[in-house]
Q: What sequence folds into this?
């Protein structure tokens, strides 16, 4: 990539691109939990009459449990927050929305977006951090504005 092709993006566009990327991740992140089908090769013991009466109740509870797990796994974090009605609780009760901490007295640490080491450089296009030329190349090939443009 030549110097002419590289362009700096202003802060509002960066924030917009980050928001788009986070929304894509939120939409793509949750998965349905696959049903486990365990096939056993052992011979089971013959059932008693009392055990046969319990099987319908067992199947029903198992079915409702599976439906409950599927319904939980399909909801996004925002949907779970809306469903819990946290916003309606009084402000003196600590919740996810009202919890806070004092700002740190130390400056924020800057980590490489590729390898996780301490970084000294930032991408001019997207603002993500990298620590070396090797990480810069990886960033430009795979991460930089890849999913937001």
A:
């Amino acid at each position: 990539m030549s110097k002419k092709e590289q362009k700096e993006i202003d802060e509002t566009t960066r924030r917009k691109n980050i928001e788009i990327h986070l929304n894509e991740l939120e939409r793509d992140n949750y998965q349905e939990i696959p049903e486990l089908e365990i096939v056993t090769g052992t011979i089971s013991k013959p059932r008693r009459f009392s055990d046969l009466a319990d099987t319908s109740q067992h199947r029903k509870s198992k079915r409702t449990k599976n439906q409950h797990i599927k319904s939980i796994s399909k909801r996004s974090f925002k949907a779970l927050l809306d469903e819990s009605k946290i916003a309606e609780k009084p402000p003196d009760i600590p919740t996810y929305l009202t919890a806070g901490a004092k700002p740190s007295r130390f400056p924020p640490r800057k980590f490489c977006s590729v390898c996780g080491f301490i970084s000294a450089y930032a991408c001019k296009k997207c603002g993500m951090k990298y620590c070396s030329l090797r990480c810069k190349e990886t960033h430009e090939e795979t991460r930089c504005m890849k999913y937001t443009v």
Notes: The beta strands are 121-122, 129-130. The CA atoms of residues 122 and 147 lie 18 Å apart. DSSP finds four helices and two strands in the chain. The mean pLDDT is 73.
